[in-house]
Amino acid sequence: MIYELLLILYFVGCVAGLWFVFKKAGEKPWKALIPVYNIVVWIKICGKDWKWYVYFLIPAINVFVFLLLVVETAKVFHRYSFWEQTLAVIFPWIYLPYVGLNGYVYHDPTQEEKHKVSEARDWLDAIVFALVAAIIIRGMILEFYHIPSSSMERSLMTGDYLMVSKMAYGARSAMTPLSVPLVHNTMPFSGGQMESYLKWIKLPYHRYKGLGKVERFDAVVFNYPDGDTMCTAWQSNKSYHDLVREMGRENVLNAKSLPVGNNMVENHIRVRPVDKRENFIKRCIGLPGEDLQIINQEVYVNGKKLAMPHESQQTYKVLFRPGVNARKILDDMGVSNEDFDNALAYIYYGEESHYRLPLTKKMAEQLAARPEVEEVLPDVRERGSRGLELFPHAEGYDWSEDNFGPVHIPAKGETLQLTLENLPLYQRVIEVYEGNSLEVRDGKIFINGEQTNRYTCKMDYYWMMGDNRHNSADSRFWGFVPEDHISGKGSLVVFSWDKDHHRVRWNRLFKKASAL
User: Fold this and answer.
1) How many whole angstroms separate alpha carbon 116 and alpha carbon 122?
2) Which sign, positive or negative, has the C-alpha torsion 179, 184, 185, 186?
3) I need a surface site. Which of 115, 243, 299, 509 has the fewest CB within 10 A?
4) How far is 280 from 368, CA to CA, in rounded Å?
5) Can you say whether the dihedral through the CA atoms of 169, 175, 181, 182 is positive or negative?
């Protein structure tokens, strides 16, 4: 409720300020109350031309224009101080009433010479203004996300730059407000070792009303659920919890460095707030309240088989005939150098003759039809093949990436019936995501010190999977994604760079991130 009140205060303060500003400028103050018309009048009294009306119609650009008009309002009252104009940009809902109610006199900008400032001041103004506007746009409207890995191929490719809408699901307010602007969680040039935020102030989760809700097959950007605690040596490439399961908690906590590939990397343990965990992008497959199961690579939701995203990939075992230039054939088909190198490594270490390659169904069919190829076989992972590597990392769950579940996805307000058998599925929901104490004593479940076999969820949860099904660390590895972790919706590829061939992928520009 407090966030809605602050939003109302912002708009009321700005409109109230314009009421008094208009009055001083010789305009009828009631014009400040009429949406759109008040902008027209405001532009006029600031002495700006018709182009500013056009700028106000352009999403994101209109945020810059609004803040520019606040600065121009300061100028028509001869308020030229750098600090005053900076505060005007940061706190317009306070500044506009302040300048309107004070004894400052309005000066028609069309009747005066333009106030001149030094070049240094001009640059300083531009930097502060751009920084404030960028923070507002990035936090409330949209931001751009670079696809760093192949987990979403071939729907979204490594090297794609994706526009992410914050308004699609509603902008999420900052939970860690004391942070370096435009930096996510670590300082540049620190090798991921120096945090870019302070934890002195922590705000509760809040999401403003958006254009819609998360829907099935949306490409969703969210904070890494398993990243509440992390090792700086591995970052999000391997979670702290995975390392604890492999090495033991004390070994991880006491390790000053950890092996990463062939190197030993300096290590520190960090506990990160929700909005400062690493950003991931995956496809939403399961919605709150649904039952999900994977049978031989096919996903079933509430018993009905889902269509696969048309450019999704599975791993296939490919056997080439002797003497064939496999790299040339696969390169022509669009298989990346990274995927080919991984396939070569598997042949070397696995002592097999088959390449294991992520391919779309269409690519697999095209390969199988080539005379240079002996066979192409689906690589189906049988139950029990991954041990405890998969969620929920507990005995009795002999699941694999291709044969997983069934699992029920919690919904806000839903009461879960808890047993010792299903408790591993919901342990992080109860303890980590919703902040309760949980323990099992003498075969009985205690939540916040009280014995119970029921728990009512406070948030909605989602099931996310990568389109590159055998090369994606997703909900099959770390479970549900809480609603407070969701940042925005991937909507449009605005640029794409092919690192293997050092060229722009022109055919991907303005491609939608939708799955079907």
Assistant:
1) 9
2) negative
3) 115
4) 34
5) negative
